[in-house]
């Protein structure tokens, strides 16, 4: 028992920095002044007048986010033991790791279901309605969170110490890994889109004035 307590304490303190650093990074990210690029009011107005169908990149990202939501909801239902045939087929034919008794995959899928899904809905809203300046920050935050979470999930499902019966079936390896990598990549692609062309998400400024002029006043 004393050995268990000693090992638990050592493991706890070794992992504490990895638990605290993301909170510190989030505080720094959301508290620092945003570096607003110089964009004219005319360009902002022109971008914000375009409908979703006239912004093909945003349209594709919206479709990908909808697919990610559907995939996340499916896996959430799977770990909640939903009796649907789709859930049964998925857990036994594609990702048996989700029923690993250690509980880690179940917790991950529930976190996705209750935290990632609402945020993805908000991001779809931001892609459809102009002036959502929070997209410039939250997309970066979400991209980092999903990349880390998916790295852990994919790595654990393929790890040699995971019982063989819970690993991804050989014949389903490519579709399962591709879907999981895509789930990690979509938020990063969205963050890159917001970073490289932020005009659609910026608040309108008086005509003829740049966003930099507004910031300086």
UniProtKB/TrEMBL annotation:
GO BP term, example: lipid homeostasis
Transmembrane segments: 12-31, 52-74, 107-127, 134-156, 176-195
Membrane topology: Multi-pass membrane protein
Occurrences of domain EXPERA (ranges): 57-191
InterPro entries membership: EXPERA (IPR033118)
Coarse class of the protein's main subcellular location: membrane
GO CC, one annotated term: endoplasmic reticulum-Golgi intermediate compartment membrane
PROSITE patterns: EXPERA (PS51751)
Keyword annotations from UniProtKB, A to Z: Membrane, Transmembrane, Transmembrane helix
Annotated compartments: Membrane
Name of the protein described by the UniProt record: Zgc:85843
Taxonomic classification: Eukaryota, Metazoa, Chordata, Craniata, Vertebrata
């Amino acid at each position: 028992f004393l050995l268990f307590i000693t090992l638990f304490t050592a493991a706890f303190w070794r992992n504490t920095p990895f638990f605290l650093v993301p909170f510190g990074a989030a505080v720094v990210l959301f508290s620092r002044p945003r570096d607003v690029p110089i964009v004219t009011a005319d360009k902002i107005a022109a971008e914000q007048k375009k409908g979703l169908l006239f912004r093909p990149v945003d349209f594709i990202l919206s479709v990908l986010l909808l697919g990610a939501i559907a995939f996340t909801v499916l896996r959430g239902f799977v770990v909640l033991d939903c009796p649907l045939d789709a859930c049964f087929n998925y857990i036994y034919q594609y990702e048996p790791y989700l029923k690993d008794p250690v509980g880690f995959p179940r917790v991950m899928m529930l976190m996705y279901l209750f935290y990632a899904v609402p945020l993805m809905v908000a991001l779809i809203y931001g892609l459809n309605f102009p002036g959502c300046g929070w997209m410039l920050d939250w997309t970066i935050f979400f991209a980092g969170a999903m990349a880390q979470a998916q790295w852990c999930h994919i790595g654990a499902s393929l790890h040699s110490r995971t019982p063989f019966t819970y690993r991804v079936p050989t014949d389903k390896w490519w579709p399962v890994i591709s879907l999981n990598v895509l789930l990690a990549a979509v938020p990063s692609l969205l963050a890159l889109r917001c970073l490289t062309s932020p005009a659609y998400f910026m608040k309108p400024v008086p005509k003829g004035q740049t966003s930099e002029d507004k910031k300086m006043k």
